[in-house]
Specification:
Number of helices: 3
Radius of gyration: 22 Å
Helix content: over 70%
Oligomer: single chain
Distance between the termini: 47 Å
Order of helices and strands: HHEEH
Strand order of the largest sheet: 1-2
Structural class: alpha+beta
Number of strands: 2
C-alpha cells in the first residue's frame, strides 16, 4: 500500500469511527475501538476469505464439495474418495 492509498484508507476508517461515536458512545478506549473495528471488518470480509480458503483446499483435494438440499456441503476427503476422484479425472481426460 503506497502513501496515498494509506491516507485514503485512514480516512475511511476515520469515517467509520465517526459513525461509531455518533451511533454508540460518547467515550471509549482504544482497545474497545480496535476490537469493534476488527470484528466489524472481519464479518464483512469473512465470507470472501472463507470461500477463497475453501477453494484452495478443494484444489489441493484436502476437502470436497457437494450440493445437498440446495446448500453447499464441504467435507474432508478420505483416501478412498481421492482415488475415486483420480479415476474420474483420468476417465474425463481420456474422453
Amino acid at each position: 500500500m503506497n502513501q496515498e492509498q494509506r491516507k485514503e484508507y485512514v480516512h475511511i476508517v476515520a469515517t467509520e469511527l465517526e459513525d461509531y461515536f455518533h451511533n454508540n458512545a460518547r467515550a471509549t478506549d482504544l482497545e474497545s475501538l480496535t476490537n469493534w473495528w476488527l470484528a466489524k471488518n472481519r464479518v464483512r470480509e469473512a465470507p470472501k476469505l472463507i470461500r477463497e480458503a475453501l477453494d484452495e483446499l478443494i484444489l489441493a483435494r484436502k476437502i470436497g464439495k457437494r450440493i445437498y438440499q440446495g446448500r453447499e456441503i464441504f467435507e474432508r476427503l478420505s483416501s478412498r474418495k481421492n482415488k475415486l476422484l483420480d479415476a474420474e479425472l483420468q476417465l474425463g481426460l481420456q474422453k
